[in-house]
Design brief:
Helix content is 51%, strand content 15%. By secondary structure, the protein is an alpha/beta fold. The strands form 2 sheets. Strands 1-4-5-6-8-7 form a 6-stranded mixed beta sheet, sandwiched between helices. It has a two-stranded antiparallel ribbon with strand order 2-3. Strand 4 and strand 5 form a beta hairpin. It starts with a helix and ends with a helix.
Length: 307
């Protein structure tokens, strides 16, 4: 739905996206006034490269390249994938034969519905290339912005009227479509800015065909991410087995009997497998898929997740 609202080649969609970008990037003095949608696929140039799929890719009238993405689930490759995708934009920011001084500014914005940086309570983080000790900026040609939705208004301690314009918009994004937030959403709509009003209007206009088109792109993106998860799972399973063996043997030796060794290995492996199953479920993987990949019964997976 996010792409169906902001990613269509339609003037209303463009104006809504421009308003949201200016709000997120705080472009009061140098606002974005026009954008051109770009192909969201960064196609690999040779067999050793990976392809990447961005949510919304656009170019401003100033020549800046923008990637705007929304993510509901965390996985271990998240930051690495962000860097790779942004790197794809950088390589495309200079036409073949152009001088390096003409390279375009690249900006990535990630709106996430999970806590990504536990070391800070602030919901908005901006990353640049900086000198480590004296903190001066190497270049402003590269920006990565992260907006962590759970940190915007924890436990809804603030009313809609007490939130900033950006906070109201982000809370609206998180709550739109949630029937349990109906009253709170109404307050956000009534006190929010044009960004919420424009988004609400487009959300109601989005057609089934547009949603299907965006789902097709989302499926391609999911396949790439799923492959990464499967690789991680196999590595994790091997590590779990090794850790389980070590833990079990240590437990058995401490008991001083061979039966303890055997039992300890089994228990250690099972505990490690349980932890892995819980982590995969937390990352959003379907229970049937977890069971199939771990060679466990669906009943066992569900029992472990309940326990």
């Amino acid at each position: 739905m996010f792409k169906a609202v902001y990613g269509r080649e339609d003037e209303e969609c463009k104006q809504a996206l421009i308003a949201v970008l200016n709000l997120i990037l705080d472009r009061k003095d140098n606002p974005i006034t026009a954008i051109i949608y770009k192909n969201p696929f960064n196609v690999r140039e040779n067999e050793t490269q990976k392809e990447s799929i961005l949510d919304i890719k656009a170019e401003t009238e100033q020549g800046e390249l923008l990637d705007l993405e929304i993510h509901l689930l965390y996985d271990a490759d998240f930051i690495h994938r962000n860097i790779y995708y942004h790197g794809g934009m950088i390589t495309q920011a200079l036409e073949s034969g152009e001088e390096y001084v003409k390279i375009k500014k690249t900006i990535s914005i990630f709106i996430v519905d999970f806590c990504l940086f536990p070391q800070t309570d602030q919901y908005a983080s901006k990353f640049l290339f900086k000198e480590e000790r004296e903190n001066f900026v190497l270049t402003e040609l590269v920006e990565l912005h992260y907006l962590e939705l759970p940190k915007v208004n924890p436990d809804r301690k603030k009313t809609a009227g007490e939130l900033t314009k950006l906070e109201r918009y982000l809370e609206y994004l998180r709550c739109a479509g949630d029937v349990s937030c109906r009253e709170y959403l109404e307050d956000l709509r009534s006190q929010g800015g044009k960004e919420i009003a424009m988004t609400e209007k487009l959300l109601r206009k989005a057609t089934a065909d547009e949603i299907v088109r965006e789902q097709a792109i989302a499926r391609d993106k999911f396949r790439l991410q799923q492959h990464c998860r499967e690789v991680q799972f196999k590595k994790g399973l091997a590590q779990a087995f090794e850790d389980g063996q070590k833990e079990g043997i240590a437990q058995g030796i401490s008991q001083g009997i061979s039966q303890g060794i055997s039992q300890g290995v089994s228990q250690g492996k099972e505990e490690a497998q349980k932890e892995l199953v819980r982590n995969l479920a937390a990352s959003g993987m379907e229970r049937q898929q977890i069971a199939r990949m771990a060679k466990l019964s669906l009943e066992t997976v569900e029992a472990w997740l309940k326990g």
